[in-house]
Amino acid sequence: MKRMIAGAVVAAMAVLMAATPAEASDPLAALKSKLGAGKGVTFTEATSHVDDTGTTTFLKRTGKMQFGKSGIVASDITADFKRYQGGIFDYMYRLRSGRTIWVGGKTYSTAPMLYEVPEGKKWLKEPLGTTGGWLGTFAQLVNPAEPATLKVLLKGKKQGRTYSGKITYSALAKVSPWFRVSSPFSEKEKTVIEYKLTLGSDNLPKKLVTSHLASSHVAEGVEVGDGKFSTETRYERWGARVSISAPPKSQVAS
Fold first, then answer.
1. Residue 213 belongs to what H/E stretch?
2. Which of 49, 107, 148, 151 has a Cα at 20 to 30 A from 195?
């Protein structure tokens, strides 16, 4: 009887071990297991301007991303922008809070930068097709939901579940479709992004903190000091059902 029980225990353990997915020890495998048509992830984030006078949080966003077979195919992001005066904030005077849907390579915004939404409409189709509208260029530009991007981030210095390092705009543009769409005029820039990525117990991205010089957002020769933009993004519900569609045509103006 003891032999039978012992044999059953060993067999059960073997089944459990065989059923344990590769992602138990591999972050890339863990991420890929959550990708697929109709799946996605939700996130919350805050962006601050940091300099020797302190930290000023001016942008908070909540949203979700939808995956497809080849990567991220859509996003729905609501942004809360708080206006300040002076320095770098003088260059943000056109920015406003609002919601942005990016799907099918097109962008729909309730708060476009250069135009007003016509009376009787709720959305304006923006010409650049960016993921978060112009406001999104001040938000999180690094996306660990992309396997190629995550692979690069995992090359950073590892301490526990946290990886830290640096990557330039131009290097990020080579591996990240999200970056190329989110910040279309920055692909060749040498701006350096510092990052710190923390994985959860499931080996999926849990928190990402990035920072880069705020001066990269203004015209060359304009002096705005040596402050930085720092963005903290938290991810939840990896692999959850997500469906994002364009607003009704009757509510959209071009």
1. strand 205-213
2. 107
The CB density around residue 119, as the number of other CB atoms within 10 Å, is 6
Tally of CA atoms within 13 A in the half-sphere of 199 that contains its CB:
25
Report the Cα 11 to chain-centroid distance in Å: 43
Compute the Cα dihedral for 104, 106, 108, 111 and give only its sign.
positive
CA angle 240-245-247, nearest 5°? 140
pLDDT of amino acid 15: 43
The residue type at 70: S
Structure tokens at 170: 């131009």
pLDDT tens digits for 124-168?
Answer: 998 888 999 889 999 999 999 999 999 999 999 999 999 999 999
Q: What is the pTM of this model?
A: 0.88
User: Edge-to-edge strand order for the sheet containing 157-159?
Assistant: 157-159, 162-168, 192-199, 205-213, 228-241, 39-51, 54-68, 71-81, 98-103, 106-109, 123-126, 252-253
Q: What is the 3-state secondary structure (H, E, C) of 49-118?
A: EEECCEEEEEEEEEEEEEEECCEEEEEEEEEEECCCCCHHHHHHCCCCCEEEEEECCEEEECCCCCCCCC
140 to each of 14, 51, 60, 210, 238, how far by Cα in Å?
43, 19, 11, 7, 18
20 Cβ contact list (under 8 Å, min separation 6): none
